Amino acid sequence: MIAVCGVVTAVLTFLFPRTAAGPIAGPAEAARAVQAAPVERGFQRFSWLNAWADHHTAPGGAAADRLDGVPRMRIVVSHLRRTRSDFGVLAEVEAPQRSALASFGREFAVVATPDATDDVVFYRRSVFRLVSRETVTMYYRDGARVTAPVVVLEQRASGQRVGILPVHFPATLPSAPGQRRWRDLDARIVEAVVARAEVPMIVAGDFNQRNDILCDLTSPETGLISPLASHQDCATAARAPIDQAFFSAPLRPDRYQAHSGPSVRRATDHAAFYEARVRLSPSSGR
Known about the structure:
By secondary structure, this protein is an alpha+beta fold. The protein has helices at about 30, 70-80, 95-105, 180-195, 210-215, 260-265, and strands at about 45-50, 85-95, 110, 120-125, 130-140, 145-155, 160-170, 200-205, 225, 245-250, 255-260, 275-280.
């Protein structure tokens, strides 16, 4: 068993949100889509999805015949606008996609790390302000060290704060067997970050696990909740997706949705984009 002690020491790496420039654009099908209704006062929409790292579809990539990363990010931005997302997590984001997000999504600020393939936090500038950002070391394929941002946002209207940790656990593949040990270590790191947090937390991203991580992170010891199922029902609940989000209980996530369709299939190799409604109010303090 790999010791967790000492792994979760956060490095204070201040990464300014990227500025945006250029036109706002999206595919015609997204422009014609009906936007989601505004969220009720006191509630915000949190979205998470796998953006499918640019190198997969770049020339020479394994899926070079698919849509390139930059136009795929246009689709993502159009989706975030259409669903009126306020903040969230994008897993598997590389430099061309980060630049595209800054260019096409001027209303969103992005917090990233220097890693080549990154899991980023985004937020709508008119709804949130950035309070702090740190980094925590996590582990990817075969124990490769990666950094994840630990972000604290403050809702402008209420002053309530929320923390966000984006994650991407390694998948066990024929070409990369035995990755469970690193997923288990990452789960322990998540638990440690949540335990020391002074604000309600959201942990979201690509876990490359299904009901097992659902049961793990909703355990009484961790104290997170899922919009998919309670800890009591996690083992027998419907098969969970590998892209999940977990919330501190005071955030009371509800109205979970999985968005699929032609645009999603063009933008990612995953089945859907996801969202839930959360409540940031005086009752959401820890």
